[in-house]
Design a protein that fits this description.
This protein is of the alpha+beta class. It has helices at about 1-60, 65-100, 110-115, 120-125, 230-250, 250-255; strands spanning about 135-150, 155-165, 180-195, 200, 205-210, 275, 280-285, 290-300, 305-320, 320-330. Strands 1, 2, 3, 4 and 5 form a five-stranded antiparallel β-sheet that branches. Strands 6, 7, 8, 9 and 10 form a five-stranded antiparallel β-sheet that branches. It is flat. It starts with a helix and ends in a 9-residue tail after the last strand.
């Protein structure tokens, strides 16, 4: 019996010892798992922080695309503005010089040199000689082009309308203080060589040059389906009323005929001209229902009774038998197809 108790007790002690060992092992495993989990979390946190830091650094080094685009646009606009300001200043200088340069009064050398000295060196001003009997007056001057010769040198082209007075040799000139002149007008085009440091200066005498060549454009008549005679007649009646209001009345009367497309404006001329009637009208159907294109020709008279030819194309819409104007355009050829 004692041996049985001893054996049982020994087994119990062994079981308790095994339990302690197991519990110790489980505790170590739990601590290991807990430590490993914390390490993983720390690593993840450091990865996130490193990512945020790198991204922030890249953002600081590389500007935002929107900001970069805006900065590029601002720089471009500044360059355009600076270029336009420089060109306007050059144009103004050359225009003023050309007007003084081409204005000559007989026996007025002193005044002429004083005027030209505002633009050029004294040596250059004194080298310019004109006939004492030259009598010219500039009626109008306008710079129209500029070309770069070097970083500081430019050619500015100026148009002038010049009035010439020449003694009338067909009648006796009895009084030298009251000379009779023949008067004529001519167009003059000058190439004015200028230099620029802090301000502009005329480098040399300007050269007369040919007028600038004009552009070229084809003249294509509108090709569309003509509206019926009844529609053409109705449109003609409404447009006669509209143009009467447009030329001779005020904006309130004009607005009665308008249903303008977005961006379109039509402003009355408030009686500056008189209108009688349309001389020619052709009305065309368009792709849109109840929308038409009318091409018109007529003359108006100014306050002095002078006739001026007028040509328009109008986009109009039929609303319950009344034709409203959506667009008024100044051309009867090369019209966009609607």
């Amino acid at each position: 019996m004692f041996d049985k108790w001893k054996k049982t007790n020994s087994n119990n002690l062994k079981s308790k010892s095994d339990i302690k060992i197991k519990n110790s092992k489980d505790s170590k495993d739990n601590k290991l798992n807990k430590t490993t989990g914390l390490k993983v979390i720390r690593i993840l946190i450091w990865i996130v922080l490193a990512f945020i830091f790198i991204r922030g650094t890249i953002t600081l080094i590389r500007p935002d695309p929107v900001s970069a685009m805006q900065k590029k646009e601002d720089n471009f606009m500044l360059q355009v503005s600076t270029s336009n300001a420089f060109e306007n200043k050059a144009f103004s200088f050359a225009q003023n010089f050309a007007k003084d340069y081409m204005t000559h009064i007989p026996k007025d050398d002193v005044s002429y040199k004083q005027r030209t000295l505002k633009y050029m060196t004294q040596d250059l001003a004194e080298s310019i000689k004109f006939d004492d009997n030259d009598y010219t007056t500039v009626l109008y001057s306008q710079a129209y082009d500029i070309k770069k010769y070097s970083d500081t040198q430019y050619d500015v082209f100026v148009y002038l309308r010049v009035q010439y007075k020449t003694p009338n040799t067909s009648v006796p000139q009895m009084d030298p203080n009251n000379i009779q002149y023949n008067i004529s007008e001519n167009d003059v085009y000058l190439d004015v060589p200028v230099a620029y440091t802090n301000n502009f200066v005329v480098e040399d005498v300007p050269a007369v040059v040919a007028a600038p060549t004009k552009g070229y454009v084809d003249s294509n008549s509108y090709n569309g389906n003509s509206a019926s005679d009844n529609i053409n007649s109705a449109v003609q009646n409404d447009l006669n009323q509209f143009f009467k209001a447009y030329y001779e009345q005020n904006q309130t009367q004009v607005e009665y005929f308008l249903d303008l497309d977005k961006g379109q404006t039509v402003n009355a001329l408030n009686g500056r001209y008189t209108f009688d009637k349309l001389d020619k009208i052709t009305t065309y159907s368009t792709k849109s229902q109840n929308v038409y294109l009318a091409i018109v020709e007529f003359n108006v008279k100014d306050v002095n009774g002078n006739e001026l030819p007028q040509k328009f194309n109008l986009k109009i819409t039929d609303k319950d038998g009344k034709y409203y104007i959506n667009q008024l355009n100044t051309r009867s050829i090369n019209i966009l197809n609607n």
